[in-house]
Design a protein that fits this description.
about 160 residues, alpha+beta, 7 strands, about 25% helix
Length: about 160
């Protein structure tokens, strides 16, 4: 039986400052929990980023809250995602162009308009053997989630059309 492991909402701003704070308030309003600031892992001169520079915001959701936000995000993209958004290992991602597309979220003129990414990890029962500290072992290939199983899960549980 496939279930949702976690849903991560992410806004990449590219620079610290007022824009980053606005993005953080948006994610905290949507998720109703504290957002975490992400930092650059390496220096990229063409983008103007340095190592450990604040460049984005993310929030991780689990259980009922993840399910509720995921349903809202699917409504924002008209219950359709592209097949290329689904990976071979039980994860899929898609973007929401503007946060005001979510049902129940109102536009705030002080913040402006931001889009965000939604990344979803799925799991089956028994995945703990790969993550636990004691007697950790590898996950057999027959137990991994395939692309077809992911499509079936999305279509059955959320009524989303994969195109």
């Amino acid at each position: 039986m496939i279930t949702i492991d976690k849903v991560v909402l992410n806004i990449g701003v590219g620079a610290a400052g007022e824009k980053l704070e606005k993005a953080q308030t948006i994610l905290e309003r949507i998720a109703e929990q504290k957002a975490v600031i992400t930092r650059a892992k390496k220096r990229i001169p063409t983008w103007g980023t340095r190592k450990k520079m604040k460049i984005g915001v993310k929030v991780t959701l689990r259980k009922e809250k993840a399910d509720r936000i995921l349903r809202m995000a699917f409504e924002a993209v008209d219950n359709q995602i592209k097949e290329q958004s689904i990976s071979d290992n039980g994860t899929f991602s898609f973007g929401v162009k503007e946060y005001i597309d979510l049902p129940g979220i109102k536009y705030d003129p002080e913040i402006g308009v931001f889009g965000f990414d939604v990344c979803v990890n799925l799991k089956k029962w028994g995945y703990r053997v790969d993550k636990r500290k004691r007697r950790q072992s590898k996950m057999p290939n027959r137990h991994r989630i395939t692309k077809e199983e992911t499509k079936e899960f999305i279509e059955k549980n959320y009524g989303v059309k994969v195109i």
